[in-house]
Fold each of these.
Amino acid sequence: MTEASEKKDVQKLQRVIVDSLEDIKAQDIQAFNTEHLSALFERVIIACGTSNRQTKALAASVRDEVREAGFGKPRIEGEENGEWIIVDCGSVVVHIMQPSIRQYYHLEEIWGEKPVRIKLGADKPKAVVKKEPEPEPPKKAAKKTSAKTAATKSAPRSSPRAAKPASKTAAASPKPHAKSAVKPSAKPTVKKVTINKPAAKKTPRKPSKA
């Protein structure tokens, strides 16, 4: 295997590891070239997980993705504790640490002489989402509806339903008896007859005696 092909394999392995760390939301991912410091590996990658559960998930993601890419099964150390897990992928060694442990040991001082520029999330294929045609905004329909509503409110109601009784109880109430329905006949008008009494007879006065 030529030197150029070896470098391509290292770069490809580095890309696979960085993508697998990003999938589990790793923080502060950094890569360093260590060819001049050690003959055992060519890259060191450091990343942070906020809890034991996340660091274990990050290590498992790196292991699975590296195996699927055809680089063999990595070795994992420190998985039981979860504060600092080392994943040995051959030419690349990954240190997954909690922030307090990373700040205390500060591995960047040991391996960080030649940082490697990595693109985070740039090489991932983006899912193509087909946009459906947007429906026509219902502004015009709303105006028509409001106009009809206003016209209905302003117009007087001439529905024949208004003549019907207000409730079913009133409609079903029994009709009054026929006898009670007959109105009493009007009283006969009595004409007043004036009777002319005979005039009183005047009695002649007796002549007074002289």
Note: Residues 125-130, 162-174, 176-182 have pLDDT under 50 and may be disordered.
Amino acid sequence: MSGSYKPILYSLKVLLVVLLFCWSGTKTFSQRGIEFGGHAGGAYYMGDLNLANHFYQPHLNFGGFFRYHFNGRYNVRLNGLYTRLSADDADFNNGFQILRDRRFETSLIELAGMFEVNFKPYLIGDTRKESFTPYLQVGLALYLANSAQDIIGVAIPVGFGVKKNLTPRLVLGAEWSFRKTFSDYLDSVSGEDLSNYDSNYGIPVDEVLWHKQRGFRFQKDWYSIASVTLSYTFKIGGLGCPAYYQY
């Protein structure tokens, strides 16, 4: 399981390097603004019951966000969403999972605060040169999963996206992010012993095997969000000369 998360962990390190580079070495221009919007898309889980399959059992997610623009490069964002997560051992052709035969489903509500960095200078209201940018995001989230063994938890959101001004006020975007939780009980599968499988395995469960895990106790669960966003934006102080923002 640890191997399946190495690309994501590597991405975390790369993201931190990029954030530091953008913060220290990028020239910015002053442009404060606010943005309100909504998002909808798919969400899926990765953990003991789904080791590495992206977009496995996707569920609809939807929510809203508020974004504050410090300038053309840096934003902070408050984000809320609702979704469901699920997985089933029976979906995988793995002997141990077939024997374990566990499944789960839970609803999830999340509130997150994130810091975002634009790759390119982005100007609120512009529909020409500085109207499009990819961006990276990282933050802290609090979630409520009503059917999980750990109902309340904390996660680290890390993701990327793109956005484009459709008009001086409307912004269309798309983003994909991963949430690393600090719990191994989002799927309610973790440090259980093998005593219930004694007859199936055909071996006695002695002290050495007693603490062998039904799940991967030292690998925390993840969930991922992929969404399309649509928002309405305001530049603090107004958009300036209207002729500048026309095609």
Note: The first helix runs from residue 2 to 25.
